[in-house]
Every structure is written in C-alpha cells, then in structure tokens.
C-alpha cells in the first residue's frame, strides 16, 4: 500500500492538519493520488495566516477620504483619436480577449455552464456563440489574430470545452481558443482552522473568486505565452453580459493613450442602492467599494447638479496591461485573499456528511477590483447600460432572459433607426418586435448603416446575418 509522501506528512503534522489522512487506508490508488495532489498544492502557512484573520471586520474608509472618480465621458472629443490608436493596436495583433465563464446557470433553472444559455432573441444563439462571433468579426475586420481566453471552473470546464469543439469553435482557429480553470481554495473549520473534507479522499474546495481569474491565467502559463507572442492588452468581461462591446477600439485607444495599466468601464447607477460596485478615488488611486459596504448616507449624497456624487457603477468590463498583470500575479504583488464565513457541508469524524444550520466554515476569495488601486496609471471610461450592459442573472424579473433579450432587440433597433430604417417602438423607446444583428453582419452601427437596406420593412422578428 503506497505510503503518504514523507515531506507531505511532515508538513501536515507541523500544521496540525494530519486529520485529512484519517481514511487513507480505505482509499483507492486514484483517490490517494487526487488527495495527495490537492494537499501538495496547499500553502499551509498562508492558510494559518488567513485563519488568524477570521475576526477581521471590513471598515469602509472615512467619508471625507472618498472622492468621486474622474471619468472620461462617453462623448469625449478625443474619441476619434482613441479609436485610431485602438484600431492600430488591433491590426498589430496586440490584444487578447478574456471571458470569465466559471458559473453554472443554476439561478436561471439551467443545469449547464451559463455560457451555453441560448439568449439570442431571434437566433437563439448562446452567450458563448455571440461573444465568439464578436471576436471572429474583430479578427476579420483588422486582419490579425485575437486570442480568446475562456476561464472555466471545475464544474464548467469539460462541458465548455466540449461545446466549443462541437461548435467548431464558432469559426475561430482552435489554436487561438484557450481554456483555463479558475483556481480553488480549501474551506477551514470556523472554530479550529482544520481543513474540511468533502469526501474521504477529497478536500472541500471552492472557486477563489473573480480575482482568481488573473492568478489562474498566470499559473496556467497562458499569461507568459501571451506576453511572448506580443500581446500587450487583455480585454476582460463576464460571460453573462451579451451586450458587451468586445475589445472596443475606442476604449482600447484611451487605455493606450493614457499608458493605463488598468482601465475600467463605468455606467451611471440607477439609484443610490443600485447593486453595482462603486468606483471611487482614494488617496489619488482608482478603487472600488462594494454596494453593500458603502454607507447609505454617502450613497445618497448628490452634487449641485442633483446627480449622485458617487454615480459610477461597475459593469465588470476592463482592459489590463499584460506587464501589469504579470506583476500582480507574482511574488509580493499577489492579489490578496478575503475571508468569508459560510455554511459548508463536510465529512464528520464518523465519515458522514454533516449539513450545518449555521456558518461553520471560512472560504477565501480574490476580488478583481483589488488590483485597481495598485495601478500607477489608470483610466475610467463611461458607457451606457443601453449600449453595453444587460446582465443575465435571474430566471425572472430584473436581469433575466426576458430583459436581456429585450435589451438586445432595443440595441438592434437603435442601430437600425440610426441607419434610417423605420422601427416599431413602444412609448419607452423599446423595440416592439424581436430584433437581432449578428456580429458577423455588423460589429457596430456604422457597419450596419453601410450594409442595410434603408427601405427594409420591419413588421416582425428579424435577424440580420
């Protein structure tokens, strides 16, 4: 019977974690191999430090220290120059696209990776297909490779790879589509700091947060590969937003012009309690305060124009400088881990699964916005919900398939109307019928105007492809 590796046994005993080997003798060879791999990857000293921070309570900065973040307006007079700079970078092949796609569609009543969800209001195309076709359209327009990086999780990795393969990568070269798994962290018992077990041969592991996207990109080797290929900028977004302007050249050009290490899109909040992260300025640095951490008194403050003082909400759309990400994912520059108290089912001493009724465990996550204050040079650029933000979160109500499909139709209607096509609209400006424009037909309103028949009659659902 294979023994526990001596160095591992010594580390576990030193850390007081040898209980994880309680069922070693019962495990199959494959189970021992899996458990050994999980244990050898752990930084037990770091886990001990995190456990020691379990009682730390987040304290928001003093109100006088929080300032509105300076924002480049959507109608900046520099936009034509920014667009030119961005298009030149795209033609040089300096841009990669990263989509965060580790989540399941559970809240949508969809038992698959969320990226597989059919969201096209006419085509029924999946989120993945819509995003991949935007990348393909960019490649065709600028005549250069644009690698697509798909961050998955343990739960979504295999079905996501299979979906792309069955779909022939939606026309993208297979060698330019890269899948990498989000990192995981073990859970610790809240009272003792002991590692919790999910099964006799398996630790309880959970995803390490959206900030783990960046550390996983580095640990997978992809970040170094991109750097070696001359990629200088990575466009980051979440899979559940079908409206996102993938690698928008104007946004990219502003990022380049300011030599920004981290550039972020913002949208105006709908109200003081809008559930978006709040972009703010702290000590001259770009920072973010979660909506749940912003004091209501501060969230409700308005300026002389009546607008919310802290109006800039986050749609989770960024451009990152590759050299900056390399620094942020190595050595002392690593993105910090945050501690959260959660209810976690675990294997008790008898080998049975215990399902706690109260918080019993510590989980650890990295947040993408923790890198923002570390950027020496940064930019915050305004966009609008109607143009670029229609998240898919819930089965019904707000941020649901119904609202996302309507947003896709509304944007298509705006483009068609700008091209001179008459569109049946509701009093609120929404499209009456389902409309959709394939990225492969038109990537933006200007391209649509050059292709569409202005005399086209729109009296029912219409898909332009």
Question: Can you summarize this structure?
Answer:
The chain contains 14 helices and 24 strands.
CATH superfamily of the largest domain: Spore Coat Polysaccharide Biosynthesis Protein SpsA, Chain A
Work out the number of β strands. Answer: 24
Q: Quickly count the domains.
A: 3
| Overall average residue pLDDT | 94
Helix content: 25-40%
Structural class: alpha+beta
CATH topology of the largest domain: Spore Coat Polysaccharide Biosynthesis Protein SpsA, Chain A
Radius of gyration: 24 Å
The CATH class designation of the largest domain is Alpha Beta
Instruction: Please tell me the CATH architecture of the largest domain by its name.
Output: Alpha-Beta Complex
Strand coverage percent = 15-25%
What's the total helix number? 14
| Parts with pLDDT < 50 across at least 5 consecutive residues | none
Shape: globular
Would you kindly provide a written description of the structure presented here, covering whatever features stand out?
With 465 residues, the chain is of the alpha+beta class. The chain is built from 14 helices and 24 strands. Strands 2, 5, 6, 12, 13, 16, 17 and 22 form an eight-stranded mixed sheet that branches. The chain has a three-stranded antiparallel sheet with strand order 1-14-15, with no helix packed on it. Helix 8 runs antiparallel to helix 11 and helix 13 packs across helix 14. The protein is globular, with a radius of gyration of 24 Å.
Characteristic key phrases:
20% strand, alpha+beta, globular, 14 helices, three-stranded antiparallel sheet, Spore Coat Polysaccharide Biosynthesis Protein SpsA, Chain A, 465 residues
């Amino acid at each position: 019977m294979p023994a526990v590796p001596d160095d591992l046994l010594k580390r576990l005993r030193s850390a007081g974690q040898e209980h994880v080997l309680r069922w070693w003798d019962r495990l199959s060879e494959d189970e021992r191999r899996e458990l050994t791999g999980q244990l050898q990857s752990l930084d037990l000293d770091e886990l001990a430090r995190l456990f020691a921070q379990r009682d730390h309570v987040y304290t928001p900065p003093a109100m006088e220290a929080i300032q509105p973040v300076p924002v480049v307006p959507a109608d900046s007079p520099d936009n034509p120059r920014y667009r030119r700079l961005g298009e030149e970078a795209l033609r040089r092949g300096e841009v990669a696209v990263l989509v965060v796609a580790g989540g399941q569609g559970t809240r949508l009543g969809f038992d698959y990776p969320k990226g597989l969800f059919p969201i096209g209001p006419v085509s029924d195309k999946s989120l993945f297909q819509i995003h991949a076709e935007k990348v393909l359209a960019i490649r065709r327009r600028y005549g250069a490779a644009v690698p697509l990086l798909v961050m998955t999780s343990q739960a979504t990795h295999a079905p996501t790879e299979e979906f792309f393969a069955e779909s022939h990568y939606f026309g993208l070269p297979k060698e330019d589509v890269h899948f990498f798994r989000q990192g995981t962290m073990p859970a610790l018992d809240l009272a003792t700091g002991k590692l919790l077990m999910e099964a006799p041969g398996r630790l309880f592991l959970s995803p390490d947060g959206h900030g783990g996207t960046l550390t996983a990109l580095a640990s997978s080797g992809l970040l170094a590969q991109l750097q070696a290929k001359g990629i200088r900028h990575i466009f980051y977004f979440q899979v559940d937003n079908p409206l996102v302007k993938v690698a928008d050249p104007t946004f990219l050009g502003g990022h380049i012009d300011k030599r920004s290490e981290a550039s972020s899109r913002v949208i105006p909040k709908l109200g003081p309690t809008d559930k978006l992260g709040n972009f703010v300025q702290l000590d001259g640095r770009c920072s973010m305060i979660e909506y749940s951490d912003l004091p209501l008194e501060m969230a409700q403050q308005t300026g002389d124009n009546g607008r919310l003082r802290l109006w800039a909400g986050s749609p989770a759309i960024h451009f990152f400088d590759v050299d900056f990400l390399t620094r942020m994912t190595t050595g002392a520059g690593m993105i910090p881990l945050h501690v959260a108290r959660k209810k976690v089912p675990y294997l008790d001493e008898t080998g049975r699964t215990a399902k706690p009724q109260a918080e019993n465990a510590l989980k650890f996550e990295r947040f993408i916005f923790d890198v923002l204050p570390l950027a020496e040079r940064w930019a915050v650029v305004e966009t609008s919900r109607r143009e670029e933000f229609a998240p898919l979160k819930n089965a019904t109500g707000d941020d649901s398939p119904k609202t996302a499909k309507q947003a896709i139709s509304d944007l298509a209607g705006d483009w068609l109307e700008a091209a001179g096509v008459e569109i049946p609209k509701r009093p609120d400006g929404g499209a009456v019928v389902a409309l959709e424009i394939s990225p492969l037909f038109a990537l933006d309103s200007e391209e649509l105007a050059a292709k569409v028949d202005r005399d086209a009659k729109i009296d029912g659902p219409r898909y332009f492809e």
